[in-house]
Automatic annotation (TrEMBL):
Keyword Secreted set for record: no
GO molecular function terms noted in the UniProt entry: DNA binding; DNA-binding transcription factor activity
Domain HTH marR-type: 14-150
Protein's recorded name: DNA-binding MarR family transcriptional regulator
PROSITE patterns assigned to the protein according to its UniProt record, in alphabetical order: HTH_MARR_2 (PS50995)
SUPFAM superfamilies reported for this sequence: Winged helix' DNA-binding domain
Organism expressing this protein natively: Hoeflea halophila
SMART domains: HTH_MARR (SM00347)
Superkingdom, taxonomy of origin: Bacteria
Amino acid sequence: MNNSVDAPTPPFVPNYLLYLLAAASEAASERFHAHVRSKGLRVPEWRVMACLIDTDGSMVTELARYAMIEQSRLTKIIIQMDTRGLVSRRSDPKDGRRVRVFLTPQGRALAEELVADARIDEQELLKSFQGGQGDHIKDTLRALIWHLESGDLKQG
């Protein structure tokens, strides 16, 4: 298909779904990530702490998935967080080869504060959509993730 005067092809990148998803995430996260950094955390550390609020005692493999951090990089981050007193690492009582990660009292207090701030930030963002579309966007994104992870999307 060529790009003729009669039927111009819209520009690729600004209309490409993956670009739009990444750009929306970047724009929506920018302000809150600045807030996270103002609390003395790096964004990957915040992601780990947010995950541990829901599932304290997670294994590194589980954290890597939900924090969206490659496992070997995450291990280094967790060691640094342990040194700073934000998390502790303990052997799994059922399998000593596995390590579980827990929030310390200091880490939990900071994580709870930031989760509360994140909830407020999210509500402000969702309110900016007219007609309650913010909740629909979350449902659509959850459905997209489910389809991608389940392999339901067919290629070609």
